[in-house]
Amino acid sequence: MTMTHFHPKQPVEQFPVQQILAYNWEYSSDRQRLMRLYENAKRDQWNATSRLDWSIDVDPHSELVPDMAMGIYGSEIWNKLTAKEIERLRHESVTWQLCQFLHGEQGALLATAQIVDTVPWYEAKQYGATQVMDEARHVEVYRRFVQEKLEHEYPVNPELKKLLDMILTDSRWDMKFLGMQIMVEGLALAAFGTMRDTTTNPLLRDLTAAVMEDEARHVAFGVLSLREFCQQASDQERAEREDFVYEAAVLMRDRLLNREVWETMGLDADACVRLTLTSPLMMEFRRRLFSKIVPNVKSLGLLSDRQRARFADLGILEFEDNTTSDIDQDAEEEQRRRQEAA
Ligand SMILES: [Fe+2]
Ligand SMILES: [Fe+2]
User: Fold this and answer.
1) Which of 82, 152, 280, 322 could staple 295 via S-S, CB 3.0–4.6 A?
2) Any idea which ligand is nearest the CA of 216?
């Protein structure tokens, strides 16, 4: 398969992907938890035009998010910056971050559209359609925020692009779930949570909170669907999924180094990346991004001893004992119900 390499001057990027198309002629609705999730999704739709107050002023030179969250904060490089340069760095840094959210949301939009086609279960197709709309709305709000409030844009970060390609070019539906619903959305939930809780701007806060309401449902969709798949998977299939999860985890950890920002600022990018890798606050933040992912991976049965050792090397194994939401209990109930009905 030939793949066009991403180039920012090329507005539309196209390449063929393998897809398995699945009709479902049974229209079964015995996956009650998925049907409930669908009802919730319909009930909780929101309109970004009316829900958010777009007239709120955004000053990208102000501390929209705390300066402390920058990898070079407090370092020698930071201390040499003038007040004007710090203002510019804030602008670049928040623009970079929100553009990556925007590109990630486009990836989610494309991935969920594929899921509707490839997943064999009718309930999941029906629920997935609501997520396609959710992701379109997320692209809408980040696009509008970036274009109206931040003035310029960053192209997709290479590691994020690689991760999205990994998900979108894999023909297996469960890999799309695993990559998008568990890994990318798990990471997004943690990153959005930090944004919502630390931003000083009410529009950015409300926008992030609204998106998060949807994302929580999306992670639940992934866990519910994959748990059923993984229970029936062979050892080899499980090992392949573990490798996919590990590869995605490495990519996600490495994309959070803001190299493009340091380059735009004309700073020593290698030194800034080194600082970002070693700053205690950034290390803590990177670790925290996995706090929602690792328990979900474990609950899918994808945390073998081999995987635990690799997660320990990444410094994220400690989250294995975190508790997830009530998805666990609900899913068990559903499993029991389905077995009784069979
Ligand atoms: Fe989203
Ligand atoms: Fe999502």
Assistant:
1) 322
2) 2
At residue 143, what is the residue type? R
Q: How far is the CA of 115 from the centre of ligand 2 (A)?
A: 12
Which ligand has an atom closest to residue 221 CA? 2
Local structure of residue 68 (DSSP, 8 states): G
pLDDT tens for each residue of the chain, 342 residues long: 333 334 456 789 999 998 899 999 999 888 999 999 999 999 999 999 999 999 999 999 999 999 998 989 999 999 999 999 999 999 999 999 999 999 999 999 999 999 999 999 999 999 999 999 999 999 999 999 999 999 888 999 888 899 999 999 999 999 999 999 889 888 888 889 889 999 999 999 999 999 998 988 898 899 899 998 998 999 999 999 999 999 989 888 766 788 899 999 999 999 999 998 888 888 888 777 888 889 889 989 899 999 999 999 988 888 888 765 455 555 555 556 556 666
* End-to-end CA gap in the chain: 42
96, 258 contact by CB (below 8 A): yes
Environment of ion ligand 2 (residues, CB < 5 A): 108, 185, 215, 218
> At residue 174, what are phi and psi to the nearest 5 degrees?
-70, -30
What distance in Å separates the CA atoms of residue 299 and residue 323, rounded to the nearest whole number? Answer: 10
The closest alpha carbon to 294, from 317, 266, 270, 325, belongs to: 317
In terms of Cα–Cα distance, which of 42, 14, 337 is closest to 214?
Answer: 42
Among all bound ligands, the one having the nearest atom to the CA of 137 is 1
User: Tokens in use for 180?
Assistant: 């998008």
CA distance 86 to 62: 9
Spacing, Cα 328 to ligand 2 middle (Å)? 20
Distance CA 36, CA 24 (A): 19
The CB density around residue 27, as the number of other CB atoms within 10 Å, is 9
